[in-house]
Design goal:
Blueprint: E1 10-21, E2 24-36, E3 41-45, H1 52-60, E4 68-77, E5 80-81, H2 87-93, E6 98-101, H3 105-108, H4 115-126, H5 131-144, H6 150-153, H7 163-175, E7 181-185, H8 193-210, E8 213-218, H9 221-227, E9 230-235, E10 238-244, H10 245-250, H11 255-262, H12 302-306, E11 312-314, E12 317-322, H13 325-328
Parallel strand pairs: 3-8, 3-9, 6-7, 7-8
Antiparallel strand pairs: 1-2, 1-4, 4-5, 9-10, 10-12, 11-12
Helix pairs in contact: 4-5, 4-7, 5-7
Length: about 325
């Protein structure tokens, strides 16, 4: 059976997050709906401030207290509604069923504890066993992410490891309890190109071995092309285009997606000067009238500046949707 005919592991419907500040409130996650299947990688792509990391925090229920809250929507993990769980119940889900790899291992690893103790802590919370067994399983987690000499590295402190090695340790913690879904929030940002390629290859291998689903957050469409099956393009807190990676690269339906793809360097070396997107994304606190991308769009007209476009099928394709008046008028 095709994986897309099976029930999704993660189902998100109409998710909305509101942030309240002294100068007013704004919505950085505005009505997201998507699903992720077993063994599938979904890319979430967009510029800084588009709402990618806030979406991840909402899925994990790790929003800043007293500032941000989920006001609408549903998040179902393997049929279980996460938004109605108590905090105690949610703590049992995090790490065990859904886990997250943060983009900066410097801040996500505690420099005062060995990497082994931090992996064992995750195992102790979510997959307890004898103390001797925990060390053995922590070593296995390091082996899984291709850490050299894991029997020695398990007793090292984060400061004794390279940036690429620390990122692998963060990955080891995330996969140690064999979660169903992993959210990777720009985990390759601090890595050089060679280490980045190794890390992406590692994620693919782990996915093939375990069948886990991956939500990969990035600003780089090149990574999306090499790693992901489907992609969600985000702008100003909205999903403006979604669909299979191949179809979106071949025929992007939203001008923002088109512009992002144009910024990806060509391997042929014949593309000339790289394109940039003029202007800046809107401030999260800015009140938007019409299409949020209109001020930066080459195709925008009066309607784009006055009315928000609905989400429609792109070229009549049920797998490919976009929020653009050009698609509506086709």
């Amino acid at each position: 059976m095709n994986s897309q005919t099976k029930k999704p592991l993660l189902e998100v419907q109409d998710l909305k997050v509101e942030i309240k500040t002294k100068v007013g409130s704004f919505v950085p996650v505005n009505g997201h709906s998507f699903s992720v299947h077993e063994g599938e990688t979904i890319g979430i792509v967009g510029e800084s401030g588009s709402g990618k990391s806030m979406t991840a925090s909402a899925l994990m229920r790790l929003l800043p207290k007293h500032v941000a809250k989920i006001t609408e929507g549903s998040v179902r993990l393997d049929g279980k509604e996460l938004l109605t769980l108590s905090e105690k119940q949610m703590r049992k889900v995090r790490g065990a069923e859904i886990s997250m790899i943060l983009q900066d291992p410097q801040t996500s690893l505690n420099p005062a504890f060995t990497v082994g103790s931090q992996i064992k802590e995750a195992l102790r919370l979510h997959a307890p066993g004898p103390r001797r067994s925990l060390r053995s399983r922590a070593i296995d987690a390091l082996k899984a992410v291709k850490v050299a000499a894991p029997e020695q590295r398990i007793d090292a402190y984060p400061g004794e490891l390279s940036g690429g090695m620390r990122q692998r340790v963060v990955g080891a913690i995330a996969i140690s309890c064999r979660p169903k879904v992993i959210i990777a929030d720009e985990p390759t940002t601090s890595l050089d190109v060679t280490v980045q390629a190794q890390y992406l290859r590692l994620l693919r291998e782990l996915q093939e071995e375990t069948g886990m689903a991956i939500l990969f957050i990035t600003h780089d469409f090149g990574i999306v092309a090499s790693l992901c099956h489907r992609v969600l393009v985000m702008y100003a807190g909205r999903i403006v285009e979604s669909g299979p990676v191949g179809k979106i690269f071949a025929n992007p339906a939203h001008p923002y997606t088109e512009a992002l793809i144009a910024t990806v360097p060509s391997l042929s070396g014949n593309q000339g000067r790289l394109r940039t997107i003029p202007g800046q994304p809107p401030s999260p606190a800015e009140k938007i009238v019409g299409c949020p991308f209109a001020p930066r769009c080459d195709y925008a007209d009066a309607r784009c500046r006055s009315e928000a476009p609905p989400t429609v099928l792109a070229n009549g394709d049920s797998e490919h949707t976009t929020s653009c008046w050009r698609a509506v008028n086709q």
